[in-house]
Amino acid sequence: MxxxxxxxxxxxxNSGIRLAxxxxxxxxxxxxxNKAGVLNLALESMMLMGAFVGIVAAYFIGNSYxxxxxxxxxxxxxxxxxxxxxxxxxxxLVILAIAFNLIIQELTVYIMRVMFGNxxxxxxxxxxxxxxxxxxxxxxIPVLGDILSGYNIIVYFSWAITIxxxxxxxxxxxGRHIRAVGENREAAETVGINAVRIQTMxxxxxxxxxxxxxxxxxxxxxxxxxxxxxxxRGWTAVAAALFGANHPIGTFLASLFFGVxxxxxxxxxxxxxxxxxxxxLLPNFAxxxxxxxxxxxxxxxxxxxxxxxxxxxxxxxxxNTAS
Amino acid sequence: MNKRxxxxxxxxxxxxxxxxxxxxAASTTSEExxxxxxxxxxxxxxATEPEFTCxxxxxxxxxxxxxIDSSARGIEQANAELPVKCDIIETNGVSEHEAALRGAIxxxxxxxxxxxxxxxxxxxxxxxxxxxxFSSPSELFLDELPANLVSYQVTxxxxxxxxxxxxxxxxxxxxxxxxxxxxxPAMNQFTYGFKxxxxxxxxDCQVLVSYLGFDFSNPTLGLETALAQYEQGAxxxxxxxxxxxxxxxxxxxxxxxxxxxxxxxxxxxxxxxIITSVIKRVDQTTFDSISSVVNGTFxxxxxxxxxxxxxxxxxxxDEGSTAFEENGPADMVAKLESTKxxxxxxxTKILAGEYSVCDALYPxxxxxxxxxxx
Lengths: 323, 374
Prior knowledge:
The complex is a heterodimer.
Chain A: H1 10-35, H2 43-61, H3 64-89, H4 93-116, E1 121-122, E2 132-133, H5 144-148, E3 151-152, H6 153-171, H7 173-183, H8 185-190, H9 195-221, E4 225-226, H10 233-243, H11 248-268, H12 276-280, H13 282-322
Antiparallel strand pairs in A: 1-4, 2-3
Helix pairs in contact in A: 1-6, 1-9, 1-10, 1-11, 2-3, 2-4, 2-9, 2-10, 3-9, 6-7, 10-11, 10-13, 11-13
Chain B: H1 2-24, H2 32-48, E1 52-57, H3 67-81, E2 84-89, H4 97-107, E3 111-114, H5 119-128, E4 133-136, E5 149-154, H6 157-170, E6 175-180, H7 185-201, E7 206-211, H8 219-231, E8 236-240, H9 245-255, E9 258-263, E10 274-280, H10 282-295, E11 303-306, E12 313-315, H11 323-327, H12 330-333, H13 336-351, H14 366-372
Parallel strand pairs in B: 1-2, 1-3, 3-4, 4-5, 5-11, 6-7, 6-8, 8-9, 9-10
Antiparallel strand pairs in B: 10-12
């Protein structure tokens, strides 16, 4: 047995980043929706749609990069449909999300079987995986180069979009409008912000990003589609957005945490005597801890607010009795 | 407004039900070509009026290119060669098993086959319906079977041992890996047999074992797990993980190293990267279950153990697979001849009873103590 610390390698981070990428993309979309005050629990379905449409498009067009674009468009369309049903017909967001998740899970399998025969997973030798790219200059930096370089374009895009989203949300007027809608829709509307348009846009963008995350699974990482390929990653993304307080950077780090935890659980089995069943629980356990910590943080904040309010009340009373 | 909302919800719900139904609808074929023939079939069958009907309940949807598809081939063979009409009822996992079984029983099939169904559930249903014949084409872990239930046991430790010999003699790095779906005695039959084989020809080899927590449909996880093993120095990885295992095969192709497939012949999935596959002939046990009912030799309450000796498990090479020979790199292909000779040597020894391989179901035997104690 090699030592326990031998798992802490550059490859652990590489693997963690690859596992985190679909979560990062979907979680950023989820965070944006939360910021705009519209709960999107349908990330899972948008991701699955992207995974399926991405590989099918790559097969028919013969170009995997175009497959990515089609996957993004499919996710975006799903987001648009979601927004339409919500705004035009007032369907409850949670029910809508459940319906989406159920339908897409079966619809993708149904279409796969109609198109490609009675199969549970589908692949074709003509499909090529999105190639990994070494970044010039950066790849020559020792250690850091190995961590930051050597992924495909989707991974780099997920980093770029994190920064872009941060800049838009916190440094631009448009971002202030988004946050205003999320914090108080009526107030935002009274000053002339079109809340419906902003929420629709947030849902479409979350669909585009989740679709890309899904395509990462089917043509960026593997070159294969299996039923329910997203396998709960959309839900992990919902948790990551919460954990990251809906802040793009926080959400990115939270998703990365989930990815690295999963990579860690995969690697640790061969260097420890812990029973494998226990080690495999690690990612689930980490999620649980995170959710508890979110709940505690909320509670703490509430308690602080309450304490502050009481103190003010007391001060006021004292003032009253003094006078 | 409210009416419209209701209408939309209704459409969504009905739509999702429709697709669910399609996903698990009974079907008898798995190839596109065959489905065309399907349309013509009912007319013919009505004329001959098959004497027996049976249904196979799959643990997960078809299309794993492995265990479940193998059993489905047994059904196809039975439909083609025997005067029977057999259906395949797909389920989406363990939560649907009981409903599917009860549905099949209510349909009045002569024989209900349950693939990898929970043993307790299967036994309790068999007790509840004593008139119905049941068969399990693969292992059921029970001490005693109800009188109307037959359980086939296909032992894979010996064929996994042969795969271990292959890996041990072809590995350059002296590190090989196993990506296993879950830590259970049935799954460890593969692992321990393989490990014993590796250490038999290569005593200083290291065998990495990673389990996936019974996640059999997560190829992304399989891919990353295999990549981790390749990084740790492994050059041949044996996958025993259903659909998650497809990720392992993909990983081998991505890093230019090697994998060993499982259950069905998987050599063609990544030609040149998959040295061989361990075959578990669930199609044969499925076919045998049906033919025993047709021939009137069906006898419930017994375990029927089949293994390498009966030709129910082995390597893809036995079926004449040459995918690796044709597509593999020259230096690895050059090792094939001596490896195959070694495999045959041990196969003879095992069949003659001169050499015993660890069966994880009996962990107290001396050969198992030696392997597990590693």
